[in-house]
């Protein structure tokens, strides 16, 4: 991974943390993600005339990614119903890079260097500790909640591998991202209608400005990630992306006035050590 790609992914992680911090909190998480995805699709419509239409061999990756994203959102709903999502989602975010690394070895034949593997492990461990905020106990998680969390992580790793492979095959990462965002927005709308019905549409329409803003920010961040996966190993990029949780912690401490506790410091050190290992690897 070159220094430019390395810092580009870190910038994308920071953007990911920023839109998470700014997203409207009066919508539930499912509707917030749906609104953001629709915003990404709307923003992609603007750049569509300036990018190529994907070749036939690229479309299976786009379609697969949309299906994986729909599965990801479906398991989000399952996680809400099964238990405390604040506990289950960290399992998904922390294990997804590990699954992406294992999947990368099988799907795209990329075997990370030993130091990169260490970096992935340190980043995943730091992400888990940081996400749990030190107050949740694994023994309190029921098996159903754990199942939905691990299912979510499988879908995250799946669309990561699909998008990395598809972006590499496409003419440019920009064209792949634009068409993916539009197709994914359609998939998100269909899923929203299935689970929430037509009554959700006025709720989403009222917050269209927030959706467009967070969609642009999130879309730019994920486009950088997909572009980076055309330049560097998918597993390393996917893991480095999870440093967004470190930026989120910095925002919460310095902008929102939350306390810097010992567990947060330990998690931050683990993430930073993982970043250094990935860079050196």
Q: How is this structure best described in words?
A:
It is a single chain. The chain is mainly alpha-helical and 281 residues long. The chain has twelve helices and no strands. It has helices at residues 3-22, 29-47, 59-82, 85-107, 114-132, 143-169, 173-196, 200-206, 208-229, 234-241, 244-254, 262-280. Helix 3 runs antiparallel to helix 6 (143-169). The termini are close together.
Helix and strand topology:
Layout lengths: L2 H20 L6 H19 L11 H24 L2 H23 L6 H19 L10 H27 L3 H24 L3 H7 L1 H22 L4 H8 L2 H11 L7 H19 L1
Helix pairs in contact: 1-9, 1-11, 2-7, 2-9, 3-6, 3-7, 4-5, 4-6, 4-10, 5-10, 5-12, 6-7, 7-9
Give the key terms.
281 residues, mainly alpha, 79% helix
Main sheet properties: none
Number of DSSP helices?
12
Supply Rg.
18 Å
Q: In which range does the helix fraction lie?
A: over 70%
- Share of β-strand residues: under 5%
Head-to-tail CA distance between termini: 8 Å
Order of H and E elements: HHHHHHHHHHHH
Mean pLDDT: 85
Quaternary organisation: single chain
Q: Report the count of strand segments.
A: 0
**Weakly predicted, low-confidence segments:** none
Counting helices, strands and paired strands, the structural category is: mainly alpha
Global geometry:
globular
């Amino acid at each position: 991974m070159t220094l430019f790609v390395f810092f580009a992914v870190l910038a994308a992680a920071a953007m990911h943390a920023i839109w998470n911090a700014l997203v409207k909190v009066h919508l539930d998480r499912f509707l917030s993600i749906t609104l953001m995805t629709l915003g990404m699709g709307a923003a992609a419509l603007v750049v569509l005339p300036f990018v190529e239409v994907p070749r036939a061999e690229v479309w299976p990756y786009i379609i697969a990614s949309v299906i994986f994203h729909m599965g990801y959102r479906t398991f989000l709903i399952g996680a809400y119903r099964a238990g405390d999502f604040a506990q289950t989602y960290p399992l998904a975010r922390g294990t997804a890079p590990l699954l992406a690394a294992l999947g990368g070895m099988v799907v795209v034949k990329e075997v990370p260097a030993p130091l990169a593997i260490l970096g992935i492990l340190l980043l995943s461990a730091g992400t888990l500790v940081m996400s749990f905020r030190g107050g949740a106990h694994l023994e309190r998680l029921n098996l159903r909640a754990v199942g939905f969390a691990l299912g979510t992580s499988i879908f995250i790793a799946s669309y990561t591998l699909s998008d990395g492979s598809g972006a590499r095959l496409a003419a440019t990462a920009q064209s792949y991202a634009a068409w993916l965002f539009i197709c994914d927005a359609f998939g998100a709308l269909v899923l929203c209608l299935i689970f929430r019905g037509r009554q959700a549409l006025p709720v989403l329409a009222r917050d269209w400005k927030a959706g467009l803003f967070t969609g642009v920010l999130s879309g730019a961040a994920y486009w950088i990630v997909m572009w980076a996966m055309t330049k560097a190993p998918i597993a390393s990029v996917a893991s480095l992306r999870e440093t967004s949780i470190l930026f989120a912690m910095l925002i919460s401490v310095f902008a929102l006035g939350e306390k810097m506790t010992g567990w947060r410091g330990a998690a931050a050190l683990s993430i930073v050590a993982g970043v250094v290992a990935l860079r050196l690897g």
